[in-house]
Design goal:
Its EC number is 2.8.4.3. The protein is α/β, with parallel strands linked by helices. It contains 13 helices and 19 strands. The strands form five sheets. A six-stranded parallel sheet has the order 2-1-3-4-5-6, with helices on both faces. Strands 15-16-17-19-18 form a five-stranded mixed barrel. The longest helix has 24 residues. The structure holds S-adenosyl-L-homocysteine (SAH), iron/sulfur cluster and FE3-S4 cluster.
């Protein structure tokens, strides 16, 4: 063993997937995982900067690790991910106990850089944004035992005016379909039965290499022998095509859950956000999804407090929410990201107003989620057992194909099993039930 490592991950699933590839490299280089930062030889934070709160958390951790490094000066401490990309060597100026800063396009360089620092003890900053080449065949140390994250593309071309992601993740690059299918096959051979295909906007998959579009890719993955569940995120409403909806409908293992972030419910704000679709276009696409897939769950992301948002806009947003009836929604307070167009827009909304609107939105959505789940009382659903519930070890937690969490008392089944569960107590965020044989 060469030493011990600890990786902390913030942000989205893409960051988890990247961290699994960094972890794979460290294991390949002879490092072993530890849960305790005090005994680690390498600590890495894979960071997120999508909102200010995400960055604040990371700065807090960087401060904590300063004390650990004082006690263990040999510790190699690095920052990777989106904040590393955004801040570069600023991070080191602010916190000189950082040994390396690794950009989002440099995941594949981790093992080499750690070895370099071990040998030479001089700091390294590499935040060159990724070019068109995609590093393939990286070792992956997956966190889950039955569910695997599989990135299908990197970057984003959409430049929504509030969002930092295109600046820190670069232009869209799609992996070759045969690479993705090969990765899914390997995962299945290792015992994984569920895969989630990841991208900032999966519907744009393949627009760069034209070897397959997202619908084609979904079909290929669906046909991999042994796969039980195929999930994907995130879909952008602007290009969710009929072909894609039909592929989901005709697929065998493609889960009936579509995360389709609307972000806002008024045309004026959607335009200012550069989301490219209108409320009418979104409504038409959502209706097409619901007609083709009546049992599908539809979830969304919403931002309140975008610059210039008025009471009228917000009233439209609430009305749209009531109309759409999402199964669930992630709701965010708009966070100003410097360098994005929205950061310099006039009429920034005050914190008090933002919070009041967020509360009103959450209250509305919670009532909707509750009512939708209530209709599942008495239903029998296929659940994949994911592990013990956090609050009660005698209770299993699992998920339906529609991505709803189900809690039920232990029987003879094991983690990773697929079971039929009768829903007896639907709640706002979880469904409680009992297993039926
Ligand atoms: N590519 C995905 C999501 C990327 S970030 C998509 O387009 O849907 C995840 C979510 O964070 C976004 O959907 C958006 O709702 C939210 N978000 C992004 N930038 C934000 C900001 N500046 N302030 C608040 N929320 C933001
Ligand atoms: Fe950000 Fe928009 Fe790209 Fe999503 S689609 S990552 S919100 S710029
Ligand atoms: Fe955050 Fe980067 Fe994901 S900014 S949300 S970790 S793409």
């Amino acid at each position: 063993m060469r030493g011990r490592y600890k990786i902390l991950v913030y942000g989205c699933q893409m960051n988890i997937a990247d961290a699994e590839r960094m972890e794979g490299q460290l294991q390949g280089a002879g490092y072993e995982r530890t849960e305790e930062m005090e005994t680690a030889d390498v600590i890495l934070i894979n960071t997120c900067c999508v909102r200010e709160t995400a960055e604040d958390k990371v700065y807090g951790k960087i401060g904590e690790i300063k004390k650990i490094k004082e006690k263990n000066p040999k510790l190699i401490f690095g920052i990777a991910g989106c904040m590393a990309q955004k801040e570069g060597d600023n991070l080191m100026r602010r916190a000189p106990h950082i040994d390396f800063v690794l950009g989002t396009g440099k995941v594949q360089e981790l093992a080499r850089i750690v070895a370099e620092i071990e040998a030479e003890h001089s700091p390294v900053v590499d935040v060159t944004l990724a070019d068109k080449t995609i590093a393939e065949n990286l070792p992956v140390a997956r966190g889950g035992k039955f569910s695997a994250w599989v990135p299908i593309m990197y970057g984003c071309n959409n430049y929504c005016t509030y969002c930092i992601v295109p600046y820190v993740r670069g232009r869209e690059r799609s992996r070759a379909p045969e690479e993705i299918v090969a990765e899914v096959r390997r995962a299945v051979a290792e015992g994984y039965t569920e895969v989630t295909l990841l991208g900032q906007n999966v519907n744009s998959y393949g627009k760069d290499h034209k070897q397959a579009d997202f619908a084609d890719l979904l079909r290929m993955v669906d046909e991999v022998e042994g796969i039980r569940r195929v999930r994907f995120m995130t879909s952008h409403p602007k290009d969710i095509s009929d072909k894609l909806i039909d592929t989901i409908k005709n697929g065998q293992h493609i889960c009936e859950h579509i995360h389709l972030p609307v972000q806002y419910g008024s045309n004026r704000i959607l335009k200012a956000m550069n989301r490219v679709y209108t409320v009418e276009k979104y409504r038409e696409r959502a209706q097409r999804v619901r007609e083709a897939l009546p049992n599908a769950s539809l979830t969304t992301d919403l931002i309140v407090g975008f610059p210039g948002e008025t009471d009228e806009d917000f009233a439209e947003m609430l009305a749209f929410l009531r109309e759409m009836r999402y199964d669930s929604a992630y709701t965010f307070l708009y966070s100003k990201r410097s360098g994005t167009p929205a950061a310099t827009m006039e009429c920034q909304v005050s914190d008090d107003v933002k919070h009041a609107r967020l509360n009103a939105l959450m209250e509305e959505q919670n009532a909707i989620s509750r009512a939708i789940n209530d209709r599942l009382r008495g239903a029998t659903l296929e659940v994949m057992v994911e592990g013990a519930s956090k609050n009660d070890p005698t209770v299993w937690s699992g998920r339906t194909r529609t991505n709803k969490i189900v809690l039920f008392p232990h029987g003879a089944e094991c983690e990773g099993d697929f079971v039929q569960v009768k829903i007896t107590q639907p709640q706002t965020w979880v469904l409680k039930g009992e297993i039926i044989s």
